[in-house]
Write a structure and sequence with these properties.
Strand content: under 5%
Distance between the termini: 56 Å
Oligomer: single chain
Radius of gyration: 28 Å
Shape: flat
Structural class: mainly alpha
Largest sheet: 2 strands, antiparallel
Helix content: over 70%
Number of helices: 9
């Protein structure tokens, strides 16, 4: 498996090295200024047209190849995910192999999509602003930056963060559902229950982390700290209220089940009382958290 991954990695490196070399040929027509337009109608017109055609053809070939490889990687990712779900609890070796395959596919997708964007960020150090003249004609002004094209780099970084958010949210939701199922079928195995609870807590922490990342991204790229901060508080408040009801109903139903099936067993009765008591405390905490977050949401700076 490692040898196969190394071969794929080398293939990607060769492909996108060629992509880097030809990346500057993507928008020849748009990149020409007034001087180059004059050359197009001079004796150098054929040379310019051929250069544009070669660059455009190369770019189309690379784009097609990129789409094909990206599609194959997505199919492979879905297959590996399916095998991981099937092998859970039955074949640890296949489960481990499926996890590695998923990581390889994700890395492959990163190699397919990110290098060209990063190259564009650092190779084309211009940002454009459209200004309308008194005659109504659009004038494009190029502002040069010696380090990077800030617009392209910002969009690239934003896309990377969005991709990470999607991956983390997907994993977190999957782990919450999976751990909840394990708690239900644990049949009193305290070790499994404790492990599943930890996974649920870590998954919730991951979702909170995503919320913080989203606020950071909006603050960094939009500068709307007040609006985004208040929106975050409102979202967390709604999340607290959303969990309060289902959690209370579930655990109170569980306590009722223990009472009904106790049959005079003092341990089950104590467990049921403990569940009722802890549920009431949890609901009070969630409602109190909702109130505090709602106040923060309406806070005026």
């Amino acid at each position: 498996m490692k040898k196969t991954f190394i071969k794929i990695f080398l293939l990607f490196s060769i492909i996108f090295s060629v992509n880097f070399v030809n990346a500057g040929n993507i928008d020849f027509k748009k990149a020409q200024d007034a001087t180059s337009k004059i050359k197009d109608v001079s004796i150098n017109a054929k040379t310019g047209d051929m250069k544009n055609q070669v660059g455009q053809t190369t770019n189309n070939i690379l784009k097609t190849f990129k789409i094909v490889i990206g599609g194959l990687l997505v199919i492979y990712l879905v297959y590996a995910g399916t095998m991981m779900v099937i092998s859970m609890g039955s074949d640890e070796a296949r489960l481990s192999e499926s996890k590695r395959s998923i990581w390889y596919a994700i890395i492959g997708l990163l190699f397919v999509n990110i290098p060209g964007l990063l190259y564009s960020s650092f190779s084309d150090k211009r940002t454009t602003d459209d200004i309308t003249s008194t005659t109504g004609d659009g004038i494009t002004i190029y502002q040069r930056n010696i380090f990077m094209n800030s617009s392209v780099f910002g969009n690239t970084l934003g896309n990377i963060i969005t991709f990470l958010e999607i991956v983390i949210v997907g994993i977190a939701i999957f782990m919450i559902v999976y751990s909840g199922i394990k708690i239900i079928i644990a049949s009193g195995d305290e070790e499994k229950v404790s492990e599943s609870k930890k996974k649920i807590l870590w998954s919730l922490a991951g979702l909170i982390f995503i919320g913080i990342m989203e606020v950071w991204r909006n603050v960094m790229f939009k500068g709307d700290f007040k609006g985004q901060g208040q929106e975050l508080f409102a979202t967390l408040a709604n999340l607290a209220l959303f969990f309060a009801g289902p959690i209370a109903i579930f655990f109170l139903s569980l306590a009722g089940y223990y009472y009904i099936t106790s049959g005079g067993d003092d341990d089950k009765v104590k467990k049921a009382k403990s569940i009722v008591f802890n549920t009431l405390i949890a609901v009070l905490i969630l409602v109190g958290t909702y109130t505090i977050l709602l106040d923060l949401k309406t806070l005026n700076f």
